[in-house]
Specification:
Layout lengths: L1 H22 L2 H8 L2 H4 L4 E5 L3 H10 L4 H5 L1 E5 L10 E3 L7 H15 L6 E6 L3 H4 L9 H12 L5 H10 L7 H6 L3 E8 L21 H10 L6 H11 L17 E8 H4 L5 H7 L6 E2 L9 H13 L7 E8 L14 H13 L6 E7 L11 E5 L6 H9 L3 H8 L2 E2 L10 E8 L1
Parallel strand pairs: 1-2, 1-4, 2-3, 4-5, 5-6, 7-8
Antiparallel strand pairs: 8-12, 9-10, 9-12, 10-11
Helix pairs in contact: 1-14, 2-4, 9-11, 15-16, 16-17, 17-18
Length: 429
């Protein structure tokens, strides 16, 4: 009975994931956000990120002027099927030569705009890595090294993006400075927790809110100041030899307007619980308010397990969903995996002796968790869970290997959008 029940739960959890991905699909979200009146005077289009193709395609269908169809650029992780604008294929999560080429092409595009132009800037998750323009004297190699170190540091996305903005020639409002005095309408699909404009794509057309001294403190805390070229860059910045990020109130931002059309907080919430219940044939259930996903992935998994186990006095089916983004601090030697896989394995390890049926789905809404072929993991209490092996996988940050052997990887494929991560938990106490 338990196996049959959990199999139904698996389909219910997948339905919740599909609901979020569908609602956050760029063409669906863009269609609801754009009208012909709003796009009629657009004269150029720049789309960057994992959802760039879908957002650009939706904009093209909305009635763009002939001039906009002749002046545009897409920077994305794959070539896609766009027949209107040139595409630059760029790296993610670590920038590559394509990311640099995209940054140069984007800078050339916006720098060519004049006072009568109106740029449609379409941003989605991954834009920060896919559009890079190292500010001299930094090089692309410097940026790649720095980005790899940031991703392995355990720093949260706000800290990472503040450092990215500081060393960029295009982020931190600098793209808006290049485009001035042209108008900019930026439309965003947000993959950051609080939908901060400076964090989405590292804010190419947004003011940087983080003071210089605070970013330098983060660089020192993370041990990045040991990089001699970074220290030299910071010295130049403090001496006024390097252009700092744009700050609130600067003239180049006066003609920038913004819409966030989809985000994790908008789509991952308790309204998903009836979807899960219906798909799982669950007539009655008790909702549990789970904490937002943040901090170290393994610790988040433990917190979620504790939240479920504290309900041992309850009876019946328990449903919970949460969204957000965790981090993983890697050592020098590590295996293969991603933050959602690590969260799920940690949860399973802490639920192994729970004594009641349970299931967790933890996945990235873009369909890719870290540098792996999986969006995350789906683990349940009917699986053969080896506690020692799970603990070892967590210790070595090698959860993909364990989950691949245990048949616990969740592989829905690329979604075409990016709304950070989500978790679904179902239990019967």
């Amino acid at each position: 009975m338990e196996k049959d029940t959990v199999n139904i739960w698996r389909h219910a959890a997948e339905a919740a994931y599909a609901k979020v991905v569908s609602a956050g699909h760029p063409e669906y979200a863009m269609a609801a956000a754009l009208s012909k009146d709003e796009v009629g005077d657009i004269s150029a289009v720049l789309a960057v990120g994992k959802a760039a193709h879908g957002m650009a395609n939706a904009a093209a269908k909305a009635g763009l002027s002939p001039s906009a169809r002749q002046k545009g650029l897409i920077i994305a992780p794959d070539a896609g099927h766009n027949a209107i604008w040139p595409v630059v294929v760029a790296g993610h999560p670590v920038p590559d030569q394509g990311s640099f080429d995209g940054g140069v092409a984007a800078a050339n595009l916006v720098s060519s705009l004049g006072q009568d132009d109106h740029l449609l800037l379409l941003l989605s998750g991954g834009a920060s890595a896919m559009m890079v323009l190292p500010q001299a004297p930094l090089t692309l190699e410097n940026k790649m090294i720095l980005n790899e170190m940031l991703l392995a540091s355990g720093a949260d996305i706000h800290e990472i993006n503040a450092i990215r903005r500081l060393v960029s020639g295009i982020k931190g409002g600098r793209l808006a400075a290049m485009a001035a005095p042209a108008r900019i309408t930026q439309i965003m699909i947000s993959d950051v927790e609080d939908d901060a404009l400076a964090a989405i794509g590292s804010g190419p057309a947004a003011a940087d809110p983080v003071p210089l001294h605070q970013v330098i403190a983060s660089i020192n805390r993370l041990g990045l100041s040991d990089l001699p070229w970074l220290q030299s860059y910071l010295d130049g910045l403090q001496k006024g030899q390097v252009m700092p990020p744009v700050r609130q109130g600067e003239a180049c931002l006066h003609h920038v307007s913004t819409k966030i059309i989809a985000s994790n907080r908008q789509l991952v919430h308790d309204d998903l619980l009836p979807v899960i219940a219906k798909r799982g044939g669950i007539a009655e259930y008790s909702p549990i308010a789970l904490p937002r996903l943040s901090g170290e992935a393994a610790e988040m998994g433990r917190r979620l397990a504790r939240a479920i186990c504290k309900l041992d006095h309850a009876k019946g089916v328990i449903l919970g969903v949460s969204g957000g983004e965790t981090t993983v601090t890697l050592g020098k030697d590590h295996g293969k995996g991603g933050r959602s896989q690590e969260l799920a394995v940690s949860f399973a390890l802490n639920m192994a002796d729970a004594g009641f049926p349970w299931l967790i789905l933890a996945a990235g809404t873009d369909g890719r968790d870290g540098p792996t072929d999986a969006a995350g993991a789906m683990i349940d209490s009917t699986m053969t869970l080896q506690k020692d092996a799970m603990a070892d996988a967590l210790r070595r940050h090698d959860c993909w290997t364990y989950l691949n052997q245990a048949e616990g990887l969740f592989r829905p494929g690329a979604s075409g959008t990016n709304l950070a991560d989500m978790v679904v938990i179902i239990a019967m106490i």
